[in-house]
Amino acid sequence: GAGVSQSPRYKVAKRGQDVALRCDPISGHVSLFWYQQALGQGPEFLTYFQNEAQLDKSGLPSDRFFAERPEGSVSTLKIQRTQQEDSAVYLCASSDAGQTTNYGYTFGSGTRLTVV
Amino acid sequence: AQSVAQPEDQVNVAEGNPLTVKCTYSVSGNPYLFWYVQYPNRGLQFLLKYITGDNLVKGSYGFEAEFNKSQTSFHLKKPSALVSDSALYFCAVRDRVDSNYQLIWGAGTKLIIKP
Fold first, then answer.
1. Which of A52, B16, B59, B67 is 20 to 30 Å apart from A86, CA to CA?
2. Among A24-28, B25-29, B34-38, B58-62, which is the least confidently predicted range?
3. Cβ within 8 Å of residue A64, ≥6 positions away
4. Chain A residue set in contact with B, beta carbons under 8 Å
């Protein structure tokens, strides 16, 4: 597609429920990032993929968070046993030049997760 | 520690007036510098970047930014503000070392343009 597509746009989950957030990067983009953005704050890094390899997951806040990109294209961010503090916008970004890119990234519109 | 500062939480400007959104950074070496804009319920949109060369960088929607190495600043500017420029603006930097691929973000500045 022409841009980075994320689904769903909005997700309301009951506390304790598992959720899965999907990211469709720009076709051919090697790098894929997940960010968490709390209301009124800048994005916080969660994890980074280069093709199907998850090279950095240092930003994942707990072992309830899991991300995968099995075929090097679509990625899924899964949150198990959601808590209220997980409420945020989850942004996906992709880039086309591996780790050597000197450009910014293309972001999706995000998934707004609200845990009630 | 590497950091990006956007000292103003909010900037108010009258339509037609020039605007400046400030950004300073503390990163070793000469980083890549970026500005992004975020409209309500939308993702982050790339505005402009500084990689090398001319210190004045021109970007989308009439925005420009000036890189000042001695002051470690990368302020965003526009000569004449539009109401439609009202949004949240983020400054971000990235180390030139390839292995340091993460963007370091400022906290954002809310720009309000009043008619």
1. A52
2. B25-29
3. A79, A80, A81, A82, A83, A86
4. 4, 6, 31, 40-45, 48, 56, 91, 93, 99-110, 112
